[in-house]
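Hi R.,

As promised on Friday, here is the backbone we talked about, encoded as structure tokens. Could you run it through your design pipeline when you get a chance and send me back a sequence?
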């Protein structure tokens, strides 16, 4: 006990005293008595900040997606979605679409998430082949966000009953409008100026992707 008390007096904090026993230094065991009295302070940042969730930025991106035609007129900067991709906003968008599509066919949820990840990877690969400076996170974010217009149209179809018992004229119009809306939003954000002339080549697979998404809702 006396030895332990002596060593405790010798060591203060995590720095060694000048009177450190030489036999410990020779055996290179002096680190055994080192202590760290400076405890790390807990980070009191909000949970949303810890998870890197910015509601205002997500809401800004949602408006850019839902109003692609008016982005420039109303002063929105569409490059925000491309330059600052996030995961939580697109995840929320895909979850909303899944919740709408799950009505009576819960097995499609897994397929929706699978097509989100794999379809985004396909668009990412095609964009890089065409010479675009695009990352997978950008593709995943924009493809996910662009499901919001499709979700809006699907809700409208459910409310109007245009998709129950087969499509009527209004159902077909909404079906096409939803695909065009989502595809236009995604293509206008993904296609940068450096390969603008190749926009049709990347727009076509984007349209096919959202047609598949719409099939998950309609069950056709």
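Update: got your reply. Pasting your designed sequence below so it's all in one thread:
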């Amino acid at each position: 006990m006396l030895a332990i008390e002596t060593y405790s007096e010798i060591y203060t904090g995590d720095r060694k005293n000048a009177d450190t026993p030489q036999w410990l230094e020779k055996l290179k065991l002096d680190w055994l008595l080192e202590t760290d009295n400076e405890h790390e302070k807990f980070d009191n940042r909000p949970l949303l900040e810890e998870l890197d969730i910015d509601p205002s930025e997500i809401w800004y991106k949602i408006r850019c997606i839902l109003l692609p035609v008016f982005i420039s007129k109303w002063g929105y900067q569409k490059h925000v979605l491309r330059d600052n991709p996030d995961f939580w906003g697109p995840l929320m968008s895909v979850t909303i679409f899944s919740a709408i599509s799950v009505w009576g066919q819960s097995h499609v949820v897994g397929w929706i998430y699978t097509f989100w990840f794999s379809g985004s990877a396909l668009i990412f690969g095609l964009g890089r082949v065409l010479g675009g400076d695009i990352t997978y996170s950008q593709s995943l974010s924009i493809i996910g966000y662009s499901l919001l217009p499709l979700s809006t149209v699907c809700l409208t179809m459910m409310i109007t009953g245009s998709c129950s018992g087969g499509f009527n004229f209004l159902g077909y119009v909404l079906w096409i409008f939803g695909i065009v809306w989502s595809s236009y939003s995604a293509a206008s954000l993904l296609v940068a100026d450096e390969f603008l002339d190749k926009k049709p080549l990347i727009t076509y697979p984007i349209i096919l992707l959202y047609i598949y998404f719409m099939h998950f809702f309609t069950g056709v």
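One thing I noticed while checking it: Residues 1-17, 38-42 have pLDDT under 50 and may be disordered.

Thanks again,
M.
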